[in-house]
From TrEMBL:
This is [FeFe] hydrogenase H-cluster maturation GTPase HydF. Residues 11-125 form the G domain. InterPro entries: FeFe-hyd_GTPase_HydF, GTP-bd, HydF_dimer, HydF_tetramer, P-loop_NTPase, Small_GTP-bd. The lineage of its organism: Bacteria, Pseudomonadati, Campylobacterota, Epsilonproteobacteria, Campylobacterales. It comes from Campylobacter ureolyticus. Residues 168-266 form the Hydrogen maturase F dimerization domain. Residues 269-385 form the Hydrogen maturase F tetramerization domain.
Length: 388
């Protein structure tokens, strides 16, 4: 459970005003003192995250956020960070007191409805006064005394529907098939480990009761001499897609780790359309390169060295590039194209939300791997196994 990446967890955000019992609820759910509890307003500043395991659900991530009614200058920044968590959650738990809703809570509920985020209400009954009559199907309990079994019951019901989503190789790979994974190790690869999409692909192949052969060799014809049958599928690092396609028999299916991840977490067709928008770019157009996580840039960095060189060669002019990194993803309307990283550290909710923002702003969006396949002239071959 502790080794499951946050990007693969069912994510539950806990929201509400200051001192309504958000941190108390988190501590009671996970049976640990994770969040500091105090009668002083604004005790929870930055979001507090806790990985946990729920039976019948699996690995989840709880996020305890700052109070949404903190109007101080510093508090407004905390509220802004709390709202950023909305982009990544699968379920929102809104904690309330047993009183009428205030303006902050009404606005919060409306925002979740607008974003179509599944919501669960927990009314913290501090005393024997009236319960919150403005809400239907709310769970009413005293967080200092009562058990949280009903909260878990509702989480399980919602998570069950979410967990029925597509798997990495659904519709692509059947039982007892053979896959070759081309995984060259460059300077960006963590020492002693494989990068996350490669690990996920390998595990998913095993889950399909199929077999995998992992190699750095991009000459498929040479690799095939080791086997008495052809592979059903080849999955390669995007940077080597052109070479792999060139050296592979035409009847073998080929795709990339990046394309598989784009299909798993987002709208693959929108990403492909975004890559094709490259042909419409003009010299005056601005391009945004979006990275999901922070890292130290190394020699030959894909976002700052390789992609700019590929773009300049393909477009015939030096592209006007801007970079962003982390959770911030706004003010994008002045860009003609967004090139996103593979998003291995983002969950599907976050990636789909970013694609929606791009679509709402009429901005084309693609990702590193799909863009590279486009520039290398092999995008059609890389996606032909998917029904787009």
């Amino acid at each position: 459970m502790n080794k499951t990446p946050n990007s693969m967890r069912f994510t539950i955000g806990i929201f509400g005003c200051t001192n309504v019992g958000k941190s108390t609820l988190l501590n009671k759910l996970v049976k640990e003192d994770i969040s500091i509890i105090s009668p002083i307003k604004g005790t929870t500043t930055d979001s507090v995250k806790k990985a946990y395991e729920i039976d019948d659900v699996g690995a989840v991530l709880f996020i305890d956020t700052a109070g949404i009614d903190d109007d101080s200058d510093l508090g407004k920044e905390r509220v802004k960070k709390a709202f950023l968590e909305m982009n990544s959650i699968d379920l929102a738990i809104i904690v309330l007191k047993n009183r009428a809703l205030n303006k902050y809570e009404i606005a919060l509920i409306d925002k979740f409805k607008k974003e179509c985020i599944q919501t669960l209400f927990v009314v913290n009954k501090f005393d024997d006064g009236i319960t919150n009559l403005e809400l239907k199907n709310a769970i009413v309990l005293n967080l200092l005394k009562d058990k949280t079994d009903e909260v878990f019951t509702q989480i399980k019901k919602i998570a069950y529907k979410k967990n029925k989503n597509i798997e990495l190789f659904d519709g692509v790979l059947d039982k007892n098939e053979f896959v070759i994974l081309i995984t060259p190790l460059d300077k960006a690869a963590p020492k002693g480990r494989m990068i996350l999409p490669q690990v996920q692909a390998l595990r998913s192949i095993l889950d399909k009761s199929s077999n995998a052969f992992v190699s750095q060799n991009t000459n498929i014809n040479e690799l095939l001499l080791n086997f008495n049958k052809k592979p059903n599928l080849i999955v390669t690092d995007s940077q080597y897609i052109k070479e792999v396609v060139k050296n592979s028999p035409i009847d073998i299916k080929i795709t990339t780790f990046s394309i598989l991840m784009a299909r798993l977490k987002g709208d693959l067709k929108q990403f492909v359309d975004g890559a094709n928008a490259l042909d419409r770019l003009k010299k005056s157009d601005k391009i945004l390169i979006a990275e999901a996580c922070s890292h130290r840039y190394v020699e030959g960095d894909i976002a700052r060295v390789k992609i700019p060189k590929l773009l300049e060669k393909y477009l015939g002019f030096k592209p006007n590039l801007t970079y962003i990194c982390g959770k911030e993803f706004n003010n994008i309307d002045n860009f003609s194209l967004i090139i996103h990283c593979g998003g291995c550290m983002l969950n599907d909710k976050t990636m789909l939300n970013r694609q929606k923002i791009a679509k709402d702003n009429n901005v084309a969006i693609t990702n590193y791997g799909i863009l590279i396949s486009k520039i290398q002239g092999v995008l059609k071959r890389s996606i032909e196994i998917f029904a787009l």
